[in-house]
Write a structure and sequence with these properties.
The protein has about 450 residues and is α/β, with parallel strands linked by helices. It has 19 helices and twelve strands. The chain has three domains: about 200 residues, Rossmann fold; about 100 residues, Glutamyl-tRNA Synthetase, domain 3 (Alpha-Beta Complex), CATH 3.90.800.10; about 80 residues, Orthogonal Bundle (Arc Repressor Mutant, subunit A), CATH 1.10.10.
């Protein structure tokens, strides 16, 4: 059976670089194995899920180079979840509970005070018809819990150690004790599904072979394996990677907009810089820009993923982007510049490439070469610039013109080093930094240079 993986975002906000880590791990794993990639929107939360956010997620993934083999929406699959819930209810594995949040918290606190684990005591299995009628009179609605297989047969009120084992494709051998957990709520009091049941039903129905996700789901895996087995479904393989955090160890939030993919794209960063940072941070591989997705897939090694949090510096996105841009051939740069509507030609690219931190910077240097520039001439340099103007070589300029000019100015004024070169650069380009003027001056041309010195 071929590998099939999924990325299941909730379309309740814009995805950020932390969300992209599992999206990429799954995609690259599928690419490496010749498998399939499912983009599955967890949009069962009708109040918060929007088409706008779903569209933005598709756009962000496409910009990164992630191409799903199929797209599914959980909001279109409720009949399957209802059928699974009915099956579990009929087998006595999904039972109704009426406690309020305050009542449950008081029970947990009481259990802690007695030195007991704060797990749900399955009071819902003991309700009499009179109690249920009273709950309904009070306006309470039932939430539904899955009865974990963590007790002797026929005695659900005695919890016994019940280990669930799996060989995690990233973390190795894992064990979870179901007796340490409360029966999970699968259906809320308003009848809506929590993430767990729809996800399991879909994984089984879509033939998901590997579930690769963040380490914050490790404890949930034992519960989910139990539900897979209760539904008679094949259990997929699981892999749990470390999570991306900021340098300060803070988690990323979709609501905060932290490093959203949209903002990174708008800032002009390269998609492979984002991909490389999201995948390689927190692994044994050096964080370097991969040329393309195939190259990044070859770098991906689950065995090299650290067990500790993957801290990253947002500034690295810019650094990796600059490395990628500096390595582009003119043909590669032109194809992408044309798509962005940016001006570019071979001589300009050769002159300014090393000074472009993003491809969009080509427009800055196009303006310096052919646009209106405000010269930066300090009061102390006005006489110097006037002298330099009179020594400007004749047209047309070539790559020897800058050297000829500065040599003549040096001999006439006695200036050298930064005191010679910087005032000329600032007058001609309007900037105190930039490409080698040996290459840039011929592009600016004699008349533009003369005008800026006036």
């Amino acid at each position: 059976m071929s590998v099939t993986v999924r990325f299941a975002p909730s379309p309740t906000g814009r995805i950020h670089i932390g969300n992209v880590r599992p999206a990429l791990f799954n995609y690259l794993f599928a690419q490496k194995q010749g498998g399939n990639y499912v983009l599955r929107f967890d949009d069962t939360d009708k109040a918060r899920s929007t088409k706008e956010f779903a569209d933005s997620i598709e756009q962000d993934l496409a910009w990164l180079g992630i191409k799903p083999n199929r797209i599914e929406r959980q909001s279109e699959r409720f009949a399957l979840y209802d059928a699974a819930a009915d099956k579990l209810k009929a087998e006595g594995l999904l039972y109704a509970c009426y406690e309020t949040a305050d009542e449950l918290e008081r029970r947990r606190n009481r259990a802690r005070a007695l030195g007991k684990p704060p797990v749900y005591d399955r009071a819902g299995l003991k309700y009499t018809e009179e109690q249920i009628a009273k709950f309904k009179e009070e306006g309470r609605t039932a939430h539904w819990r899955f009865k974990l297989p963590n007790h002797p047969e026929g005695d659900p009120f005695t919890f016994q150690r019940t280990e669930v084992h799996w060989d995690d494709v990233i973390r190795g051998k894992q064990t979870v004790d179901l007796a340490s957990m409360s029966d999970p709520v699968l259906i809320r009091g308003d009848g809506s599904y929590l993430y767990t049941l729809p996800s399991i039903v879909d994984d089984a129905d879509m033939g998901i072979t590997h579930v690769i996700r963040g380490e914050d789901h490790v404890a949930n895996t034992g519960v989910q394996i139990a539900i897979f087995e209760a539904l008679g479904s094949k259990v997929p393989e699981f892999g749990h990677h470390n999570l991306l955090t900021t340098i300060d160890g803070e988690g990323l939030s979709k609501r905060s907009g932290a490093l959203s993919i949209a903002s990174l794209r708008e800032a002009g960063y390269e998609p492979m810089a984002v991909n490389s940072l999201a995948v390689l941070t927190g692994t044994s591989h050096a964080v370097e820009p991969a040329k393309d997705m195939q190259a990044l897939a070859e770098m991906l090694d689950f065995g090299g993923i650290s067990k500790s949090a993957a801290k990253f510096d947002p500034a690295e996105v810019g650094q990796l982007t600059a490395k990628i841009v500096h390595g582009l051939s003119f043909e590669e740069a032109k194809e992408r510049a044309d798509a962005l509507g940016l001006p570019i030609e071979p001589l300009l690219w050769a002159a300014v490439q090393e000074n472009c931190n993003t491809l969009a910077d080509i427009a800055v240097w196009e303006q310096v070469v052919r646009g209106n520039v405000t010269p930066l001439v300090g009061e102390d340099d006005k006489e110097f610039i006037e002298t330099a103007k009179g020594l400007l070589p004749a047209a047309p300029f070539d790559e020897t013109s800058w050297g000829t000019w500065t040599k003549a100015v040096k001999e006439a004024t006695g200036r050298k080093g930064k005191g010679l070169f910087m005032p000329l650069r600032k007058a001609v380009t309007g900037l105190d930094h930039g490409p080698d003027l040996k290459k840039l001056l011929p592009l600016i041309g004699h008349q533009n240079t003369l005008d800026r010195l006036s």
